[in-house]
From TrEMBL:
GO terms for cellular component: endoplasmic reticulum membrane; nucleus. Residues 170-241 are annotated as: Disordered. Keywords: Coiled coil, Endoplasmic reticulum, Leucine-rich repeat, Membrane, Nucleus, Repeat, Transmembrane, Transmembrane helix. It comes from Gymnodraco acuticeps. This is Leucine-rich repeat-containing protein 59.
Length: 323
């Protein structure tokens, strides 16, 4: 059956605002076709072989009354609560055991029939017998109340789970921050240790350089002192030499002069030159010198005697003092 024939057949089932699809041997709900007729607010899908409702069924928010009795439904879609306009829901004689938690959001629901379903005990107790109009209205009210309680429990459980997850997340964050803080502290400590190591190396290098510089200065001072001492010694060794050389030279000159004078005097006195005019003053000087030497002979002899007497007296006085 083509899409157009489906639409045409669906049109044939519409009567005012009602769509009658009962006893059509349907296994699924024609959601797309129903969505095209928003004015059809009442849908009868009873007495078919429908086992489940597609999620898109929850988008038919214009529905006010839905009859799904005498089908094979085992579950309802989770978003059934989106049907906020739904007032009448017939689920008689299906295979439902539970209802979706969103069922509590059907704020407009006034009538509900859940009999002849294998419902869970608490849900069956809330649904009641649904034997007449009044009981079906009570079913809608009590089931909504029951589902709201379940919704609250689910919300609390979800909130508790979220709080637990948040707590775990906070713990993870705290652990992460602690780990990052420890890593940061470790990096900081490593940097400080590395800096201290570099500082010690720098101080050691500086101290070594200072020691080298000090040793260099000491060596220079030592060399300077040794140099001064050597210069002093050299000066002491070399200083007398010029004096000795000078005295020696003067002595040699005097000796040479005396030798020359003696030669001249000898030539003037012992040779025929003594009669020459140039030798006359020489002979006179020699005679005067010899006379002076004779005169001084007695003085020298007296001086020697005096010194001998003084020495003899000094020796005698020394021996007397010893005794």
């Amino acid at each position: 059956m083509s899409k157009n024939s489906k639409v045409l057949n669906l049109k044939d089932t519409i009567n005012g605002n009602e769509v009658d699809l009962s006893l059509c041997n349907l296994t699924e709900v024609p959601v797309r076709e129903l969505a095209l007729f928003t004015k059809a607010t009442v849908v009868d899908l009873s007495c078919n072989n429908i086992t489940s409702l597609p999620p898109e069924f929850c988008n038919l928010t214009h529905l006010v009354k839905v009859d799904l009795s005498k089908n094979q439904l085992t579950c309802l879609p989770d978003d059934l609560g989106n049907l906020t306009s739904l007032q009448h829901l017939d689920l008689y004689n299906n295979k439902l055991t539970v209802l979706p938690v969103s069922f509590s959001q059907l704020r407009s629901l006034k009538w509900c029939d859940l009999k002849d379903n294998p419902l869970e005990a608490e849900l069956a107790k809330a649904a009641g017998d649904c034997l007449d109009e009044k009981q079906c209205k009570q079913c809608a009210s009590k089931v909504l109340q029951h589902m709201r309680e379940l919704q609250d429990e689910v919300d609390r459980a979800r909130e508790k789970r979220l709080l637990k997850e948040k707590g775990l997340e906070r713990k993870r964050e705290v652990k992460q921050k602690d780990r990052e803080a420890k890593e940061k502290e470790a990096r900081k400590r490593e940097k400080a240790e590395e800096k201290e190591k570099r500082r010690k190396e720098y101080n050691a290098q500086k101290a070594a350089m200072a020691a080298q510089e000090q040793q260099k200065k000491k060596n220079e001072e030592k060399k300077k002192k040794n140099g001064l001492a050597a210069d002093k010694k050299a000066a002491e060794k070399t200083a007398p030499k010029p004096r000795r050389s000078l005295i020696s030279l003067v002595f040699k000159l005097l000796l040479l002069l005396l030798t020359g004078l003696a030669g001249v005097a000898a030539a003037c006195r012992l040779t025929d030159l003594k009669k020459e005019a140039m030798c006359v003053p020489v002979n006179v000087a020699v005679d005067d010198g010899l006379s002076w030497a004779k005169e001084q002979e007695g003085v020298v002899r007296q001086l020697v005697q005096n010194l001998s007497s003084a020495a003899k007296e000094f020796l005698e006085s020394t021996q007397a003092s010893k005794n």
